[in-house]
């Protein structure tokens, strides 16, 4: 449909939108302030409850009681209030129940719908809201507009500002925000929590075609019946995190389609929604809605046991408290099935299979014969479900199966028995592919490096040639393993933004994993390397010298020492859970796996996958997708480094699971593409702002605004460039020197600071997103800071020197360089005690080195005194580590006196003297390592 909204001013945009809404059966009402809002709410609530109250209208006192009851809550509390009846004491002494919003199935159209504009609300500041949709007098949808040509994210920033300043009273009931500049339009849920632009969504049609024009969006999303249906059925009040969520369009279409299929047919179906698109929420919302239908006797939500980790359990319980059975006992499942009050049962595929084939449970299973039962299968591409399907089909003859997968089985990647997903689940009712998710900003694309590790005449792009060589001998070669470890150590900080993120390293087999683990240990790197795998007599082969369980045992022992834990292979599940948690919190730098953690594991801070195995089809997409969860704009894509998997395998998998012939929609373009784009962006910047000195444009806010937009584009491209090994920060390479870029950054920050200090609400910059978090520069390291301090000392003016030193301290605080982080307090101490008083005549190098040596002695003396070990001994330990890269912990333990161990045990309430000794030894070991890095 052609849009008739394309006007330049916000006023025209607003007027045309209101005309469209009135045509869509909204009543226009003029509301200027909070008194008008309350008066209108009173009229509408009386109208909506006329039948319930037998025509009685609320008196002043009765209405006041209603207001007192529903006000003073946050968004979460207001959302719960909106969806429940309010018991009000009437003047006659009786209790009546007032309905704020009719959410009943298929009755959501039976509400009162109005539209208003420019409501003035006063909080910290006075604000006027653009367009408000009222349902039964409550403002439930708030629409903020920007004129055409303005970044619509500014409308989002305006919403955030309003929430801080004045979105109070009945506006706490707002459920959905809509932002638009006429051309681009998105919606998102209200929240008490800090909000994030990544959770704003475009609406689409069923085929994932975006509806971003405001006029078209209003026709599809804002009609009274649809918007009230979205609020009633397709929002989730998360009782665990006390938050409000709204479903995305593809989630909406799937639930609608599968509910129709459940009520009108007995046919199976499956959904293909790419990894990371929120299949758990979609499938659980579906199960909730199906469970309310009287024709459906039971809804079983089946998940594979290995996916039932702490993350999955937490997510399921968010939607329905205590819904997950974490036991391995099939008896627990049977008890649930025997409880008629449980309409939704979440269990594992394995337990359901046991229940179906065990004779002692058949008296319960048989109760479902002849009843309509629906199985919702998570990750239904798994081959084992094909085996289970035959088993339960006999036990549940009227069962219907709905499968959810991010990577279906096609003929190209059929399961071991040759069947595809469609063979089991019949029709695919909806797909939302990885290319759709990337385009919508719901997941990231991939940046893939292919690294040759074998010099031979074999064509690594030719699978037959590669498989023809003795791969086990070649791939496990000591030199090859050593080279790859060196390469990973070299690039890891680059790939992970100086370890702000972390990585998984997946390898072909357990013997290969063990070999890599030992090779990393030889390096004595400060990378935290952890290994995990499921041991077994016949799994992935045996080592000649050491059983795989013994190997895992010593890896866990290292882990215990690293994190002060006490796991072993007998407590493997607890170890698995703790590793999962530490990967998510980036306490682990590289996790070595064979197959674990490559499906169903979501960690926003994981951004890199090293691959030394041959992946293809669904295994490749599943593994790659561990890295592409949205975090912040500092994470532009998932990094993949392939040591075996070739480009053809990647392209084939991407094409297969994107239904496209063009893999570039998912894979990031080469370095040259972003470099050339950056150069063009520099040219555009310099046309408008030739030098950093020109950035403030004499205080002209319109020109400053243009500068901010142009430079923000450079920042975004710089984030991408810095992840490439080829990147070289020079004028010749990218069109701007590092010094010039940093000078522009300083001006950009200055405009940002001045904007933050403005009180006037009329500033043109008030809603600009500065993306200030993107300005961390990984090139800022110790040498760079020392150079800045040295230059500052040469400043003739004490005032200017102090100001420069203050700015240096701020740079230190915002840097992500690990060495600088370790030395930050040390350098800040030097700035404040020495540098601030120095003059240009003083010998800077002498003063700096003397200060460092004195601080080093002081720190050693402190540790020596604390643990009553001689300074000479501590210095010897440090010297041994500097020379050989190894700390002999047994030597440290020999120096620990019994009374010192006892003192620390009592002081810290440790359980045993042995544990206390290990902890002290660990503390001293870490001190030795830190002091070597800090004072190198």
Secondary structure topology:
Elements: H1 10-23, E1 27-28, H2 34-48, H3 60-70, H4 75-82, E2 86-89, E3 95-98, E4 113-122, E5 126-135, E6 138-145, H5 153-165, E7 176-180, E8 185-189, E9 203-204, E10 210-211, H6 214-221, H7 224-233, E11 235-238, E12 243-246, H8 249-264, E13 269-273, H9 279-291, E14 298-303, H10 310-319, H11 330-337, E15 344-348, H12 349-357, H13 362-365, E16 373-378, H14 384-395, E17 399-405, H15 421-425, E18 427-432, H16 434-439, E19 446-450, H17 463-468, H18 471-475, H19 478-495, E20 502-507, H20 510-523, E21 529-531, H21 548-563, H22 572-584, E22 590-593, E23 606-612, H23 617-624, E24 638-642, H24 647-658, H25 671-688, H26 701-721, H27 731-734, H28 738-757, H29 782-793, H30 798-814, H31 818-833, H32 844-867, H33 871-884, H34 889-895, H35 898-908, H36 913-934
Parallel strand pairs: 1-4, 6-7, 13-17, 13-18, 14-15, 14-16, 16-17, 19-24, 20-22, 20-23, 21-22, 23-24
Antiparallel strand pairs: 2-3, 4-5, 5-6, 7-8, 9-10, 11-12
Helix pairs in contact: 1-6, 8-9, 11-12, 12-14, 20-21, 23-24, 25-26, 26-28, 29-30, 30-31, 33-36, 35-36
Overall shape: it is globular
Q: Report the total helices.
A: 36
CATH class identity of the largest domain: Alpha Beta
The major sheet is characterized as: 6 strands, mixed
Low-confidence stretches: 1-8, 537-544, 770-779
Count of separate structural domains: 6
Helix content: 40-55%
What is the CA-based Rg, rounded? 32 Å
What is the name of the CATH architecture of the largest domain? Alpha-Beta Complex
Looking at how many chains there are and whether they match, the oligomeric state comes to single chain
Classification by helices and strands: alpha/beta
Sequence of strands across the biggest β-sheet: 1-4-5-6-7-8
What number is the mean pLDDT?
Answer: 82
The count of DSSP E runs of length 2 or more, i.e. the number of strands, is 24
Straight-line distance between termini:
67 Å
